[in-house]
Specification:
534 residues; alpha+beta; flat
Length: 534
């Protein structure tokens, strides 16, 4: 007892006092609820007026609002019955209460003011209800989005306050993912542009770049630099000794692949042969991929058909080289990793190109290599003017050299040679000394993929052309046979008609007694006159 504080004793006494008061209140309320009974003389059945009205003016106003709502409803009787049932009353009791409330307010002079307030509140409620009905769905969607955003903001604020470092990292990742989603379909997410040479060699994208972006990037580079800027080292001339003469061989510079001797002696049909040479004087790397295209000899006796197929093959290969469709059919897993696009600058009519390949760029991603045309040779066109050119086996050749902003420095040559066995297609990548060179594996993959694509495109285009020609020939043959058959049928019909007419005339002359007494016009001649016969 000595340790008990006086404040503790006071709190206990106050708690006991409140408990006693609460019990008294509960007992009093229970007694009132149990002993209350309504006055039977106030009921309408006994001739009363329904009992006293509420004392609160707010409740009196609510009665007026209820009366106005019942009157303005579509079915007042049904509305009155529904409200009475909801309040455990009869229709007569509810109607009497509303009428007494109306008369009492009218006698006290408060009816007009309250009716104005009631009408104004009802009009406002109707207008608000119409707005909520018209815009309920959009408002709900907006409120849902707003609530989600607010919940995310609250959650983020709580997480930031608890873990600031992790929250900052997550925020950075979120921003990076949003930027990636925005930039991926536009440019493939550019990760380097070659501004820092030790770390970035050239233009690189994280994902596969769209072909339109490649062309747009090259055109912008051309406009920014005021023209094409070659990345090749300066050209040097070296003498190449032969038995009877000496010839100058260009190393480096634009057009250096025109002096290269491409060895296609070991080429095979249906296979791509790749040769890599790093021992050529003046060159760091020379990689060549070649393949042989031939026509299947289905009918050895039909020489005209074979000549037509060979000519069709030549035309298809020439069209592919002229149209620069080098990556239409990239085989295997490299189908989406290699792209080539050629375009023309209308200002000075110079041809440029863009080349992208996976694993060529920085960090093993997609590297973009701008190119420009070096030269184009077509011996088929020159053979009509110079007969001496027919001794050269080359039919078509085009080469592109690299520009600044790429990943290697060299020249890419596309060559078509006509041999006795068929057409040889070869793609050569030459890197001179002093220039940046890709890895051997990457260079071989590049030239072999391009060679396979050109060969496949040539075969498919040849088959399509031959199919169209055969269809046109068969159609002409069928049309000619149908026309011949129609002419023969018409001739037979006319012949039968003539024979029938002659037979009919013969029978008529034999069976008609007056055949000589009638003119050909059908008019009867004079008696005794000359007789006309047929």
């Amino acid at each position: 007892m000595k340790h008990i504080n006086t404040s503790t004793i006071a709190i206990i006494i106050l708690y006991i006092t409140l408990l006693c008061c609460n019990n008294n209140v509960i007992q009093t309320a229970h007694a009132l609820e149990a002993t209350f009974t309504p006055n039977p003389e106030d009921s309408i059945e006994n001739g009363g007026d329904g009992g006293p009205l509420p004392v609160s003016m707010q409740q009196r106003k609510q009665l007026l609002e209820l009366e106005a709502a019942i009157i303005n409803s579509q079915d007042p009787a049904a509305t009155l019955n529904h409200v009475a049932q909801q309040n455990n009353m009869s229709q007569e009791e509810l109607a009497g209460m509303l009428e007494r409330n109306h008369k009492d307010l009218q006698e006290s002079g408060q009816l007009e003011g309250m009716m104005g307030e009631v009408n104004a509140s009802l009009a406002a409620q109707q207008q608000q209800g119409s707005r909520s009905m018209s815009g309920s769905l959009p408002r709900r969607i907006v409120s849902l989005i707003t609530s989600i955003i607010l919940a995310l903001i609250r959650t983020a604020s709580v997480q930031i306050s608890k873990n600031p470092k992790q929250s900052t990292l997550l925020f950075i990742l979120l921003i990076a993912s949003l930027l990636s989603i925005y930039n991926a379909p536009k440019n493939g997410i550019v990760i380097s542009t070659g501004v820092f040479p030790p770390f970035c060699r050239g233009h690189t994208t994280l994902l596969e770049p769209p072909i339109d972006y490649l062309e747009r990037y090259s055109v912008q580079s051309y406009e920014r630099n005021g023209g094409w800027i070659s990345s090749l080292p300066e050209a040097t001339n070296k003498q190449k000794k032969k038995k009877k003469s000496k010839s100058n061989k260009q190393v480096g510079g634009v057009g250096m692949t025109s002096s290269l001797d491409i060895d296609t002696s070991n080429v095979e049909e249906g296979e791509v042969t790749v040769n890599t040479n790093r021992r050529v004087d003046g060159y760091t790397l020379i990689t060549t991929a070649s393949t042989l295209l031939t026509i299947d000899e289905t009918d050895e006796e039909d020489e005209e058909l074979q000549l037509e197929e060979i000519d069709c093959m030549h035309e298809s290969i020439k069209a592919i080289i002229e149209e620069r469709k080098f990556t239409e059919f990239i085989p295997g897993k490299d189908a989406r990793s290699l792209k080539f696009r050629s375009f023309l600058i209308e200002d000075d009519m110079s041809e440029g190109a863009i080349f992208s390949m996976k694993l060529l760029g920085d960090f093993g991603r997609y590297g973009i290599q701008p190119l420009c045309i070096s030269y184009e040779i077509d011996n088929d066109d020159d053979s009509d003017e110079e007969e001496e050119s027919t001794s050269s086996p080359m039919t078509h050749c085009v080469a592109f050299h690299t520009l600044t902003g790429g990943h290697f420095d060299g020249e890419l040559q596309f060559l078509v040679q006509e041999t006795t066995e068929g057409d040889v297609i070869s793609v050569t990548l030459a890197i001179p000394k002093g220039g940046r060179a890709p890895s051997t594996r990457l260079a071989e993959s590049m030239v072999s993929s391009l060679t396979s694509s050109i060969a496949q495109s040539a075969l498919i285009r040849t088959k399509q052309t031959l199919a169209r020609r055969s269809q046109s020939k068969s159609y002409r043959t069928q049309a000619t046979s149908r026309a011949k058959k129609k002419r023969h049928m018409r001739f037979e019909q006319e012949k039968l008609q003539e024979e029938m007419a002659a037979e009919r005339k013969r029978k008529w002359k034999r069976n008609n007694k007056d055949v000589g007494r009638y003119r050909p016009t059908g008019c009867r001649g004079p008696s005794g006159g000359p007789k006309f016969g047929f």
